[in-house]
Amino acid sequence: MTNVRGNVLPTALVELLATGRWGPGTRPAHLLAPTAAVGGDLVDVLDLLDLALMHGNTDALVAAYERGEGDALGLTRGAAAHGRLDVDHAVLIAASREQDALALDYSRPGAPRVVATDDGPAGVRWVEVAPTFESLLTTPERDRG
């Protein structure tokens, strides 16, 4: 099992990592565009994170929360809150220089859902873009998993 901060990664993501189809330098062409949920062309600006960057960037989320930046970044710790990401139950899987991000949200029972940042007038919130990682993949990728 491959995990980040104790959260087991979905099998399809592990397979993409192992075959070099997820990570720096790869383009997210195999992802369905989560634009309807977040109101932008998020897929085109994301850099896919390899396992080391998943660890580092997820640790950075925890550090940001601990520095008191949780409200600004839509983060929480230890308690579910609508539109917020619990840093203890999340793994960042893609990010942009503009601070857009995709994360796996493990705060609910079952497979983690995929959430994305949505920066609006009220600040950053995290919105579901897919109920599972597998459902975020385009059909050819899903058929391989």
Describe what you observe in this structure.
The chain has 145 residues and is of the alpha+beta class. The chain has one domain. Helix content is 34%, strand content 26%. The chain contains six helices and nine strands. A five-stranded antiparallel sheet has the order 3-6-7-8-9. Strands 1-2 form a two-stranded antiparallel sheet. The two termini are 16 Å apart. The C terminus is likely disordered.
What's the order of the H and E elements?
EEHHHEHEEEEEEHH
Largest sheet: 5 strands, antiparallel
Average pLDDT over all residues: 83
Termini gap: 16 Å
- Overall SS class: alpha+beta
Number of domains: 1
Radius of gyration: 14 Å
Write the layout of secondary structure elements.
Blueprint: E1 3-4, E2 7-8, H1 11-18, H2 35-38, H3 42-45, E3 47-48, H4 51-73, E4 75-76, E5 85-86, E6 90-95, E7 101-105, E8 113-120, E9 123-130, H5 133-136, H6 139-144
List keywords for this structure.
9 strands, 5-stranded antiparallel sheet, 145 residues, alpha+beta, 34% helix
